[in-house]
Amino acid sequence: SKSITIALAGNPNSGKTTLFNALTGAKHSVGNWPGVTVEKKEGKFIHNSNEIIAVDLPGTYSLSPYSLEEMIARNYIVNESPEVVINIVDASNIERNLYLSMQLIELGKPVVIALNMMDIAERRGHKIDHNKLSQALGVPVVPIVATQKKGLKELLDAAVDIVRGKIKYNPNRVDYGKEIEDKIQKTKAMIKDKSNIAKYDLRWLAIKVIEEDEAVLDLLNMKDKFSAENEVAVTNEDAFENDFEAIIADRRYSYITSILSKVVKKPDSKVLTTS
Ligand code: GDP
Ligand code: MG
Ligand code: K
What we know:
Blueprint: E1 4-10, H1 16-24, E2 28-32, E3 39-47, E4 50-56, H2 68-79, E5 84-90, H3 94-106, E6 111-116, H4 118-123, E7 127-128, H5 130-137, E8 141-143, H6 152-163, H7 178-191, H8 202-210, H9 214-219, H10 228-233, H11 237-241, H12 244-263, E9 264-265
Parallel strand pairs: 1-4, 1-5, 5-6, 6-8
Antiparallel strand pairs: 2-3, 3-4, 7-9
The structure holds guanosine-5'-diphosphate, magnesium ion and potassium ion.
């Protein structure tokens, strides 16, 4: 059967290189992303007789249009359509890492979370219920220790099972609250017939329009702030009072906090605190 391309995405220092090397061994090539001097690594290996191509994306905290690395990561996932994204999450720093996860999931391509550094989290006495986290997010979550090559088989099994349709991929969406959700619906209706958007997730595009994401406004020919379309999505009255990008970021954080309060227990407090 056809080879499977896996993109590895995660925060800097989450263990991406360690995982990439553990998976691909010495068999990988190092180059640059087209047109820029950001390193691109690609490697091939076999898992259960599936040929896997792993592509290491730049380490990022977000997928905003403001950074070259973040644009490389998000453009690769959208334009090159890897069959699955493995999102490496540092379990000892889970709140911050999940902020990227929410954005990766929102892109619409299948995501499997590799919950790395479980040894550190355990040493600190953090109890993380990965099954509950998986249920809450609606995506597979596999605990791993990349430095010890622990959990890698289970991680690859989950990734392959998603690609082969053995696991149904059905992520839960962040609820951005009535005002933003109404805006998302209106914006989706407004942009759905645009010609060049087939490969994008419509909800993701709508959220980016509301955030006034430059790259997406450009793609949709919506950069003219005073166009009728923009009036609906971006520059309506509210926009003068509200910074929707900030509100959306805030809702993502509260969503993560509320999930983690049920999933993580730390020694000095019964539930997770945000401090
Ligand atoms: P990257 O920036 O995401 O590529 O992260 P690296 O792979 O370079 O890892 C950052 C540091 O964390 C290195 O010192 C790794 O050896 C270490 N590391 C990676 N995974 C684990 C893990 O599961 N457990 C522990 N204890 N350390 C890890
Ligand atoms: Mg690295
Ligand atoms: K953002």
